[in-house]
Amino acid sequence: MLELNAIESGYGETQVLYGLSLKAQKGRVLAVLGRNGAGKSTTLKTIMGLLPLKSGDIVFDGAPIAAQPFDIAKAGIAYVPETRDIFPSLTVRENLDLAAKRFGGPQAEWTMERVLDVFPRLAERMDNGGAQLSGGEQQMLAIARGLLMNPKLLILDEPTEGLAPIIVKLLHDTLQELRDGGLSMVIVEQNFGFATSLADDVVVVGKGQVVWSGTAAEIRGNEEVQRTWLGV
Ligand SMILES: Nc1ncnc2c1ncn2[C@@H]1O[C@H](COP(=O)(O)OP(=O)(O)OP(=O)(O)O)[C@@H](O)[C@H]1O
């Protein structure tokens, strides 16, 4: 459903991706792993139109991906950045309403009610300001907002970063539920156990390219790849 073919991208003069190719398939979870600075976040930002694609192409659902972030979201990709980017001065309800109004509708698969079923903790915090939420609640809000965009593909950048183990476990169970419901996802993650227990497929990024790809079971059994490219 999403295909990156030999993409090159970076920040101004600084090139970070050197011919990176990968495929994310419908109904499956792809984990993108790699050491700090390998180019994982840069890959996601390039997919989302936040960094210019210098060379190569990106195909989503059989068509070249749009150039502008809003059009990419409209086409069906929801992106939860590392920074979560919720609106701190708005309440939980207002944060969710913004996405529901823009991307919802009578036919929408994800409604406010359904999202709050998945994240009951948010239902208890609807009138709290974004800034009053814990890190885990902010992450839940960011994912809930992504779901209300009714995406075909949900992209998450380091969802467990900075979260306590008990919240990581809760998040894991929630994402597993979404996966079992058939949601396609791409997850960039430093937490190897978290990522490989959720993922079907795995790519490892090193120095701006994909250096290994296979299934989650294969990488769990491959200590050499773990040691060489992930430092696990
Ligand atoms: N805004 C920026 N301007 C210039 N260089 C950047 C910028 N952001 C990241 N880089 C550089 O791009 C390279 C890849 O960064 P990227 O964030 O994609 O890595 P990553 O694999 O996601 O790792 P991390 O887990 O640290 O986020 C790094 O060398 C980083 O220093």
Structural notes for this entry:
The chain is an alpha/beta fold. 38% of the residues lie in helices and 26% in strands. It has ten helices and ten strands. It has helices at 40-47, 69-75, 92-103, 112-118, 120-123, 135-148, 165-180, 192-198, 216-220, 223-230, and strands at 2-11, 14-24, 29-33, 55-60, 63-64, 77-80, 153-157, 184-188, 201-206, 209-215. A hairpin with a 2-residue loop joins strand 9 (201-206) and strand 10 (209-215). The longest helix has 16 residues, at 165-180. It is globular and about 45 Å long. The mean pLDDT is 94. Adenosine-5'-triphosphate is lined by residues 11, 14, 16, 34, 36-42. Residues 2-232 form the ABC transporter domain. Pfam families: ABC_tran (PF00005). InterPro entries: AAA+_ATPase, ABC_transporter-like_ATP-bd, ABC_transporter-like_CS, BCAA_Transport_ATP-bd_LivF, P-loop_NTPase. GO terms for molecular function: ATP binding.
